[in-house]
Amino acid sequence: MTPVKLNVYISYTPDDRKAVEKLRDWLYPMRDEVNLWYNDPPKPPKPLPLPWELIASVLPIFHPRDYQEEYKKVDRRRKERAHIYLFMTSYKSLNDSKIDNDITLAVERRIEGDWLSPRIYPVILAPSLWKERSRLARFQPIGGKKSLAEQKPEEEGYLEITEQLSKVINEMQRDLNEAKYAQTRLEGSPAPALPASSGARPYLGGDEALLEFRAPAPIYPPEWLGWMIIFFLFLSLAKGIQGDKPTPQLQKNFIENANPAWQEEYRRTQPMVQPKEVAPMRDAE
């Protein structure tokens, strides 16, 4: 049986991305036991060079592919299969509707008192009114008693988060492996299937390919090639407008009756000989 690899999803507002990247670096040694996910969409494709924009306006043969929509689907599946949710909490995140939607999804998946239920942890980045204005107020934050902005040095706060999260990961991984082993035994048993449980149904693996996203690097054709294609298209268009010049043809009678200067004169078998000059006769005396 393959051990369950825990999925950790980090929800954040774009202004707090640096803190997410720093936490990612601290959790990097756990990459063999944990999938660390956060919203990191591919950049939109750059505009085409000018000649290719002109060509694409007439012949739509080349357009860089945009993977934004495909990534959104993968990101949604990742959220639905996360075992641990980390919400980067600051005064900037309190008014972010996307984070509020992520909280709704995580809370709906969680069942209080169920040991297989997803875990939800706020990560306090800076002082804010999150206990008064956020629905995360009833969840215990992970890390120290102070926010990361108040920790001096800040690395101590990230270290404490990493140590606490490591304990949670080890505990959840043990429980999930037991659940997967029990499920495997149940599926291989000849006994009739048990009725569906009302408890949490954690993700135990099986569709990892749907959670992977690797957008290929965009390919842009060289600009000089675009100008060359435009040049040949212009020449072809100009030739088509001008049309082909008609080839002059001689009349049939003229061709038949013509006697070209280069034609050799007919040679006679008995050519006429120029007669010799005869002396004039004298009058008889």
Structural class: alpha/beta
Strands of the biggest beta sheet: in what spatial order?
2-1-3-4
- Count all strands and give the number: 4
Order of helices and strands: EHEHHEHEHHHH
Beta-strand percentage range: 5-15%
Overall, the morphology is elongated
Runs in which pLDDT lies below 50 for 5 or more consecutive residues are 191-197
The number of helical segments is: 8
Mean pLDDT: 79
CATH architecture of the domain at 6-44 and 67-191 and 198-211: 3-Layer(aba) Sandwich
The amount of helix comes to: 25-40%
Terminal-residue CA separation: 156 Å
At the fourth CATH level, what is the homologous superfamily of the domain at 6-44 and 67-191 and 198-211? Toll/interleukin-1 receptor homology (TIR) domain
CATH topology of the domain at 6-44 and 67-191 and 198-211: Rossmann fold
How many strands, which pairing sense, and closed or not: the largest β-sheet?
4 strands, parallel
Radius of gyration: 44 Å
Q: What is the top-level CATH class of the domain at 6-44 and 67-191 and 198-211?
A: Alpha Beta
